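User: What would this chain look like folded?
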Amino acid sequence: MAVKIVCDSTCDLDKSWTEAHGLIIVPLKVVFGTEQYADGVTLSKEQFYEKLTSGKVLPTTSQVAPGEFNDLFAAILSAGDDIVFLSLSAHISGTFQSAEFAKNALGSERIHLFDSYSATCGLALMARIAVQLRDEGLPAAEILARLESLRPKLRMWISLDTLHYLKLGGRLPASSAFIGELLNIKPILTLENGKVTLMEKKRSLTKAFEWTAAKIHSTGLNRDYPVCFGHSNAPQALDSLIRQLGLSGIAFSDPLTVVIGAVIATHTGPGAAALAYIEQ
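Assistant: Here's the prediction, encoded as structure tokens.
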């Protein structure tokens, strides 16, 4: 009997990483107008950003259907393996509820479901921890318990380069966005209790990254666990974030990096840089 780690596609992990570490990915759907794609399968990150920046209407995303989970879970169980499934926040998608529906339909206690209250690099970080725990030989129930104990300590800060997509998505009035763009305002987002939340506003990305460094110093960084960086098609912005953290005396060993995908990038737009970690 083995433990299979399953995660939805909003973890944004590269296919090469998931295949190398035996992580099973279930894709959400991304919808541009009348066109529907499987996240990361029939729509790459590069194609997503091209469509995002060339269009005037934001895409939408669709949760994984219960039937997809039912088929996948049943196949894993029939092979004699247990399941730990990690989901993006149930507050921003019905994917976790779909997994719950499938678990109840199958009536198996060997299916263990974890709502990360996060997404993108936050979910990727928890998936990496789950894989490490599996490789250490922990059973599925204990992996779930460890993830749940770490969830309140998971921190993720996303510094945005533009207000445009918050305005398009209705999270920021057009008048506020106009003034913010004039003042070069750079918002910092997080997922607080599973909900997208505006944490702070700074006058430049440098100031936003300085705020992130100060926040890490204030919360403490638990170096027993890895960290995960993310960027929305903006490796230069991520380099600037890492450089600013280094200037603040914060260094990392063996970090994981993801390109932020459709669910979160629809709010952030391109140009964002992010960090997820476990606080002390």
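The domain at 153-278 is CATH 3.30.1180.10 (Hypothetical Protein Tm841; Chain: A;domain 3). If you want, I can go into more detail on any region.
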